[in-house]
Amino acid sequence: MAAPLQQPYRRALGLWLIILTAVFGCTGRKITTAVEDQAFLPGPSAAPVVEPAKVSPPPTQRVEPKIETPTPMKPPALEEVRVAEQPVTVPQSAPAPAAAATPSAEISDVFFEFDQFAIRSDARSLLEANAASLKAQAGHAILIEGHCDERGTSAYNLVLGERRAQATKQYLQDLGVPASQIQITSYGKERPFCAEHSESCWQANRRAHFRRP
Confidence class of residue 88 from pLDDT cuts 50, 70 and 90? Predict the structure, then answer.
């Protein structure tokens, strides 16, 4: 009876060994299946990397400057340019200044002999007329210039011309002309009245000349 009981037990034990071997054997082997046998399992997938598109710059366009043609101006109408006429005031000219007082008679020059400053006899009547004219114009001064001919040095003739002017002034003072009204100077031979080298020219240059200062 023991033998028949052990036989089923051995079969069961062997069956369990086969099952365990199959189970543990499957876990250690790599099972390869065909692509068609694999089922698709949906899941999160990495987003594809999209490279930025290269944008080419727009072609540069040359902008031509716009030249505006000036509009011709229309001349204004006659009515627009009319301006009210206004009387033009012409300024009156300023009154002319009063003419300077002149002696009542012409004042004459007097002449001298060569290398002399004494008043000649023919010059006395001229000086008397000059004195009357100067006394009539007491507010106006007179300048007496002493002149000489070209002979002699310049320094000598300056002194001689001054003596001739001084002698003429003294004669007028003796006739009543105030000394404050008379001025004198000497030019010697520097300002001749005649440029010729003759006796007549020399005589014309030996003089006391009267003029207003």
Answer: very low
